[in-house]
Predict the structure.
Amino acid sequence: MKTIRLTLAQALVRHLAALRVEEADGSLTPYCGGVFAIFGHGNVVGMGEALHAERETLPTYRAHSEQGMAYAAVAYAKAAMRRRILAVSTSIGPGSTNLITAAAVAHVDRIPVLLLPSDTFATRRPDPVLQQVEDFQQGDVTASDCFRPVSRYFDRITRPEQILTALPRAIQVMTDPAMCGPVTLSLPQDVQAMAFDCPESFLHPEPIRFRRPPPDADELARAVKLLAAARKPLIVAGGGVLYSQAGAALRAFAEKHGVPVAESHGGKSCVAWDAPLNLGGIGVDGGTAANEIAPDADLVLAVGTRLQDFTTGSHALFAHAKLLSLNVQRFDAGKWSGAMLVADAKLGLEMLSAGLTGWKADAAWTTRSRESAGRWNKRVAELTTNVPKGVLPYDAEVIGAVRDSYADSPARDIVVCAAGTLPAELHKLWRASRPGGYHVEYGYSCMGYEVAGGLGVKMAVPDAEVIVIVGDGSYMMLNTELATSVMLGQKIIVVILDNRGYGCIQRLQDATGNGSFNNMLDDCVPEGGARSTIDFAMNARSMGAHAVHVPDVASLKTAMVAARAATTSQVIVIDTTHTRTTADGGTWWQVGVPEVSERPAVREAHARSIDAQTRQRL
């Protein structure tokens, strides 16, 4: 066996640089698109030297916050349909723990990202070093142990030779369709620099070939039997449809068998918005079409979805339908006592269809679904284009202006969002024409993801027009990767809706009987304080972006046309109201309303919640 003397860091970086994905046509593409790194003590010497040596084959990107660059890496992999990744390298201590929230995002959303936090010295000779977390009962605990519950695979590398098994295992997890998620290799700073005799074969890994697990024959037969007995079936499409690249198979199944399709946040865009049987978004923030059809379904075929509470109306929206879950992950397929079909979404749909020769949903059900989808699309046009005068605009009117401002083709647009009211409005009103055109992180619904996520999407899909739509609250949570987008030459358009606070949570507060408290900025000024006067356009200009504040929706559309023509990152700010929202659609959502309160409105809200819980699936 031929070997070469390398440090741990050098072997790791060279392996990553050599990894390739074998595409369907036999071509090879890099699996790792680069490494985001913020250097500090712990990684600047070991990982830094190794990354510098391979900078031509494995680019290193500098960011402005560890949390932001990890969000960008998550968004990159999500936009690449989990077929490519970015790695993330940090220093020890706060540099490492700044990644934790992003790791949780990736864990919840089933997104691969390679996290490489630095750790304290394996030898422990200089302990406690700067930024070291010490545990009084467990001598082997460090800050990196925080990653364990939010990693699909975790390993602390205490000898350089361990990378020979740890890194391939990490890659296996990230490329496994069922286990996919974040992996963490914690790298003690002394071990990064230790040398070992590395087998040359490690530096020339086999190409990655993504698997499509077929269904079990018995499970398939039971699933076919269930569907064949259904008269009013409904498909609920999740993110697994996108990651399996099963959109065409899903549409073919729906049209062949007359089955309507409703979309979760994760699944939105898997089928074009104007497909005749696409009902649009479903659930708490879903549209009228899907939410009117769902309660009458006698069978729900959940494809590649986690059945999150927003999708299911806290499991009350289609509680009486039979449930059949087609999912590559057994954990998700077995939820809520439904029938399981554990398989790749594309293969599963194709094999289900083949077993259902001659079967169709009732013609009246299919006709009703088509008509409902058509009415909803007309209503979406009304909501997003009829802008009243004399009042502040709200999200729907902004979405319409942004959505319809394209010069050539809307298919180039990818909208990015994550938290607040905007995901609800986008779920109802955004029109996605191609898979991935809707990029809303709504598994963890992580405020601060938006700008950094837009950067990651642009890096993954450079020919797209990446449009980040974000509220002022989320923008203030984390906006520094706007400067990174300028620095890296990765143009994004950021539209900031300034409703002066956390308007979404304010409305939840109101809806559950509480008064205005601690959400809107003007309500949070104590005696001796000062009213907030943040100039978001000025803030964006200070980071190198071109930024304007527009007075109305018409001006927004004009500014969007100019922003699309620009070559550098653009920011457009518009004042909006939190008091107007799209009333159409929606369904109940369970929140913890207090059982005891002096407020009559809270007691009434609690009574309504108890009544709604009687309709939940058990």
Q: What stands out?
A: The chain has a mean pLDDT of 96. The radius of gyration is 25 Å. The longest strand covers residues 113-119. The chain has three domains: 3-203, 217-375, 387-575.
